[in-house]
Write a structure and sequence with these properties.
single chain, mainly alpha, two-stranded antiparallel sheet
Length: 428
């Protein structure tokens, strides 16, 4: 795929195949279908909202999907999280409201009230856990299920509300070390495995580095808040603490800087971690997500050397055949579409030379989605029919959104990806 092919054509083709939320073959019988931003209706609605905002498809279609998302009671409170239930739906409605505010104001106000109450509950529970000297669960703080993801929504929707400051204050405290079993652990050390469950492969737990479930997500949110003029006591120091941890565990290889997906207790004690130089450089784990998080941190801290290191790390990762060879699917979460999208976002904030190099890589990455030259319609059909499904994180809608965001047809100032912590929100 080249940008002469204009990648928005792929987005349109996917959306046309997903025009009807009641079409046969969609998993409408699944309980998560209408509430999952990652897998279901909200993520597909997001694609239709973005296409409507770009004038490529009618608002009526977007409205049809939004109605499907709201046609049943919405889960709120403890059973919800940034990618399921009230916060997930609120994210999509907020994207729509940026273009049609009068249509969604009442629904958003009700969702915001529920999210604010849940945020206060989550923050109170997190502080109580820290006071007790216990280790956190990943779901307490991460971008997918935790307070980082909630904070990303609040930063975009309600940056002046006290709930956002409460989330930031908690994340500052999360970076303070914990003393456990005679050892000093980073405050985000969890006693379980990367899945969030007890895992025999991780005796003593681990420190997760990723954007989806690790400390890169909180760092990105803290940095984005600074760049949006929302700062609490200790915020810059917290960003610096996370940067120092990532510096400590970085490996400088022939293919550029590489960071481990996580650090185990044994590696912490040995002060050494072997890094796979050919590991997948995805958004969720790996160099692409970490490069964007560290670029944002460098901008927040006014740290030019760190900015250069982060931007060059991404260029080298995306030009390395071994790392690209480890990327075997088209998805937004950990595939070629996600790499193209991050390259596009990093380029927008990069120094001119690096921006040019990244810009040249974007069409190559998008081209891997349609490696056989099948064209947008056949490629879209293959994506929709794939076992990964039609959803946002791993399915067709996410690939389409990434393709649209990299095209000249993308709506101006789009922040659909604020849930991924890859874009800089503007104040509402």
């Amino acid at each position: 795929m080249s940008l002469a092919y204009e990648s928005h054509q792929l987005a349109v083709a996917v959306a046309d195949l997903l025009a009807d939320p009641d079409a046969p073959g969609l998993p409408a019988h699944q309980r998560w279908w209408r509430q999952s931003l990652a897998l279901g209706v909200p993520g597909i609605a997001l694609l239709h909202v973005e296409l409507a905002a770009a004038g490529l498809r009618p608002w009526q279609r977007a409205q049809h999907w939004l109605t499907a998302a709201t046609s049943q009671p919405v889960t709120a409170g403890a059973d919800s999280h940034p990618f399921h239930g009230a916060p997930a739906l609120a994210h999509v409605l907020a994207c729509a409201a940026a273009h049609r505010p009068s249509l969604y104001a009442h629904a958003l106000d009700r969702l915001d009230q529920a999210i604010a109450a849940d945020t206060r509950r989550r923050v109170d529970a997190a502080h109580a856990r820290i006071d007790a000297g216990e280790l956190p669960a990943l779901a307490e703080f991460d971008a997918i299920r935790g307070l980082t993801g909630i904070g990303a929504y609040l930063l975009r929707r309600a940056p002046d509300r006290p709930e956002l400051c409460a989330v930031l204050q908690y994340l500052v405290r999360l970076t303070q070390p914990l003393h456990r079993d005679g050892e000093v652990l980073p405050g985000w050390w969890t006693g379980r495995g990367p899945s969030g469950r007890i895992d025999g492969r991780f005796p003593g737990g681990h420190a997760n580095s990723g954007m989806a479930h690790g400390i890169a997500g909180p760092m990105a949110l803290l940095a984005l808040a600074v760049l949006n003029d929302v700062v609490v006591d200790g915020q810059l120091a917290a960003i610096s603490t996370i940067c120092a941890w990532l510096d400590e565990w970085r490996s400088d290889t022939e293919a550029g800087p590489v960071w481990p997906y996580w650090i185990t207790r044994a590696q912490l004690r040995a002060d050494h971690a072997e890094v796979n130089c050919a590991q997948r450089p995805s958004w969720c784990y790996g160099t692409a997500g970490l490069a964007r998080a560290q670029q944002l941190a460098a901008l927040a801290l006014n740290d030019p050397p760190r900015r250069t290191t982060a931007e060059h790390a991404l260029v080298r990762a995306l030009a390395d055949p071994h790392q690209l060879g480890a990327t075997t699917d088209p998805s937004l979460c950990h595939g070629h579409a996600g790499l193209a999208h991050i390259a596009h976002r990093v380029a927008a904030d990069a120094l001119p030379d690096t921006a040019q190099r990244l810009g040249a890589l974007v069409p190559c990455l998008l081209g891997r989605i349609d490696a056989d030259g099948a064209g947008p319609r056949r490629t879209a059909a293959a994506l929709v029919a794939d076992a990964a499904g039609p959803g946002l994180l791993e399915g067709a809608a996410g690939v389409a959104l990434a393709a649209l965001s990299c095209s000249t047809a993308a709506p101006a100032n789009s922040t659909w990806d604020s849930c991924l912590l890859t874009t800089r929100p503007t104040r509402p």
